Amino acid sequence: MGLISGNGLGLTAILLTAVTYGEKLPTDTDWPQWGGPRRDFRVLGANVASTWPQGGPRQLWRRALGEGYSSIAVVGKSLFTMYRKGDEEVVTSVDAVTGKSLWEYRYGAHIPAGMDMQNGPGPHATPLVLQGRVYSAGATGKLHCLDARSGKLLWSHDLVSEYRAALPQYGYSSSPIAYRNTIILPVGAKGAAIMAFDAATGVVVWARHDFPISNSSPVLIESGGVRHLVFFLAKQLVGVNPDRGDLLWSFPHTTQWDLNIATAIWDGNGILFCSSGYDGGSRAVTLQRTEQQVTAKELWANRRLRIHFTNALRIGEYIYGSSGDFGSAFLTAVHLKTGKVAWQTRGFGKANLIDAGGKVLLLDEDGVLSLVNLSPQGVTVLAKAPVLHNNAWSIPSLVGSTLYLRDRRDLVALDLR
Fold it and tell me: Across 111-120, 291-300, 355-364, which has the greatest mean pLDDT?
């Protein structure tokens, strides 16, 4: 079973996320993790207007927050994100209606010598909220499990001191993923490049491999009846068995400074897409299964689309994203099956994208929010307004008609009805 053509998600993707979330079907009433309900930056039932009032969408509230690029998880009437204050990192829960703090959990997170924080000290990863618990991973490699209602610590691990994790140059930034009763994330330690922890107790379930770590967050896919947990690591794409961590396949993708940051995209029909800046470019590989093994083969590769630290979005047979690492960024459309560039255009800063039920929300790094239609023929701007400042690098979160977004200073809620 694959994806339905166009914008709709087929049964495979829906059931796969149900496995991730304890066999419960996902809905668009929450944004519980990096990438939203299905980790694909889509809200299928979004209630978003086709135009905005002069001056932009209505602001519900705005509040000061603090340093960090962690985006916002939303479950029920609570938001969850992270920020830094001095030598501490803070996991916080915020009332979705008022913007007021519900609780904060602080812990020591001194930046070690040699870690480059010139673009901001983090935290970078997005919390995962599941079954009444919040799982957070800080920039210095500290993993916490907190009670979602109270903020009480349930368990924690220091990935560096306990497992000798090798952190990325710019700090840890991979958002945890859930699979059945485990929480899984890259660690980068010898013999423990990827680790799975029991979601309730924090006990190590498995630890495998020697791959160097990257800044990307993993995704769960299904190909040929086999589940793969896909990691876009420092030098390669890899697929592992999420139950035991066995390596299923790998494919090289190298960049300057080993910086692969964007999340890989699966089309549900055999094609896996990845992209990076720093001379990495984009690549599509096909996954083919025989009785003995799964093989990854290159479908195409080029450098016309180079996604730096933002996300890519798949709509139908096309990938859309901001291309460029240093200098200007070009909003770009690429045909997923051939790698052919359909178009490139200026007019937007480096941007994150959300599929809001067919229309696309585009937030660029200068804090300008746009509502657009994307197609293989080009981009049509429906509305545009400045809403943020100070390095708006965090991808927004959309629940119904409310958009939650942040920069390095403020947390904001907008009404998009």
Answer: 355-364
